[in-house]
């Protein structure tokens, strides 16, 4: 009898446990939402710097719509191309697990959406939270086609820092007083560097220091004592930037949708493609304070030396009664445009909040030289050879200048088994070893143009050392890897020394990022596990450099079974 009662109790307990697990499972997924949006890419008159341009926008907005979701949510975004250019959209920093079809880079994972046509991007946020962004990934359309993508924690999950009173996306951009596509077209023709921008912007507005702009300067009201979260995004096309807020300290709590150990600074350096979340407490005398951004220029090259501003405005700030308007805001102290020490001081302060998982046994040890180059011309006096000394600008990784395919996208060609679109012989090291940051022989300045991929087995543990070169000029190249985030384990100036430099690697609490630059004339090392099958672009996020060929792609092979394999392409995937 006791045995029978015990059996009944066991069955009842197991039944209760099963029901509890089922309801917990359902409750977990009931929290997740599917967000449906329509993004209409279209031209709209936009006035900046006293002139109106027919600007490519999304839904008539510049910048474009902000997407706010939670970890675990899915997005279904129908992109309708009503513009006159081919276009694709990229969801920068989203891992897109097993789903390269939603990643978006033109001719890499999809053919472009042609004018008058549409494509629906479908993807799910999986174990990511923080600040990311979306942008066009076709030529220079992202100059104006971009917006914030904010991922909140799952319901019931708090931030790992004090809850801010409010959250403000800060999108830093660049503005040309002409059609950016025409700027690119001219540079493509002449082989020279493209014209620099005419202004920087904060949330689409240049600010007080530019002509015809003061009335539209963005203002952010704040109450005394409040703590706010600034989600800073560098959406500029070609320029790294210093950013600060007058008289206010910034506490960095996340970069590239990865939390960091909080640290306080008066200025951040942020490269195109990167995001930085900072807490700001309104603890100053009530008044008006400029937030401002200007160039960090690590190269010996022309740049836009202007400053964009917005205003942090205390709600209790006194007005100038005599003039009937508020007093001039206080201006922040930003580093000089060439202050590499300040840039390095900021990036070296980034750490993960605690110990993180970093690959220790490396399967693929890659050494990538990144930098510019020059293509020699048969006729140096040609109007198509207006680069230095009658050449055309180029850029490369390991002396291979990346060429986008024309007949098909890389991913579609791979999935369909179409030959002749790419090869998989990208070199793991430079073809010639040289003094990368010294006086480089002119015989090494001309790269080879090709569409080469590097093949990785699923689950491979990968280390890449990005080595800047002094060819043409040293420069901090922000390298972005699609489909992945990675641990930034070390960096330094000069040539990387494989015998001594690894001893200084941080394998305990390195920051995780999706975009990172080497110090100018230096190197940076990253590690990741190749756990996402598909073809994934790696490129410099200075778009002029990508256009010159500073990119390559990884082909990550399928693993075992459905959960380690690329999912089938959607039926509406555009064709070339």
Topology:
Blueprint: H1 2-31, E1 34-48, E2 51-58, E3 67-70, E4 74-81, E5 89-92, E6 118-124, E7 130-136, E8 146-152, E9 166-175, H2 180-190, E10 199-202, E11 219-222, E12 227-234, E13 240-245, E14 250-255, E15 258-265, E16 268-270, E17 275-281, E18 288-296, E19 307-314, H3 340-348, E20 364-376, E21 391-397, E22 400-402, H4 410-416, E23 448-450, E24 453-456, E25 461-468, E26 478-481, E27 486-493, E28 512-513, E29 515-517, E30 522-529, E31 534-540, H5 543-548, E32 551-556
Parallel strand pairs: 1-4, 3-8, 9-12, 11-19, 20-25, 22-23, 24-32
Antiparallel strand pairs: 1-2, 4-6, 5-7, 7-8, 9-10, 12-17, 13-16, 13-18, 14-15, 14-17, 18-19, 20-21, 25-30, 26-29, 26-31, 27-28, 27-30, 31-32
Function: Lignin degradation and detoxification of lignin-derived products.
Cofactor: Cu cation
Pfam families: Cu-oxidase, Cu-oxidase_2, Cu-oxidase_3
